[in-house]
Amino acid sequence: MELTGAEIFVECLKEEGVDTIFGYPGGAVLFLYDELYKQHDKINHILVRHEQGAVHAAEGYAKATNKPGVALVTSGPGATNAVTGIADAYLDSVPLVVFTGQVPRALIGNDAFQEVDIVGITRPCVKHNFLVTDVNDLATTIKKAFYIASTGRPGPVLVDIPKDITTARCEFHYPKEITMRSYNPTVKGNKRQVRRALDLMLEAKKPVLYTGGGVVLSGAAHQLTELAHELGFPITNTLMGLGGFPSMDKQFIGMLGMHGTYEANNAMHHADLVIAIGARFDDRVTGNIEKFCPYAKIIHVDIDPASISKNVKVDVPIVGDVKSVIIDMLEELRSRSERPDAAALAAWWQQIKEWQGADCLKYNQDVNAAIKAQFVVEKWWEVTNGDAYICSDVGQHQMWAAQYYKFSKPNRWINSGGLGTMGFGLPAAMGVQMAFPEETVACITGDGSIQMCIQELATCLQYHLPIKVISLNNGYLGMVRQWQEFFYQKRYAMSYMEALPDFVKLAEAYGHVGMRIEKVSDVEGALKEALALKDRLVFMDFITERENNVFPMVPAGAGQNEMILV
Amino acid sequence: MRHVISILMENEAGALSRVAGLFSARGYNIESLTVAPTDDATLSRLTVVTRGSDEIVEQIVKQLNKLIDVVKVMDLSQYSHMEREMMFIKVGVEKNTACEAVKRLADIFRGNIIDVSDKTYTIELTGDRSKLDAFVNALKDYRIIEVVRSGSMGIARGEASLHI
Question: The ACT domain covers which part of the protein (chain B) (predicted)?
Answer without folding.
Answer: 4-78
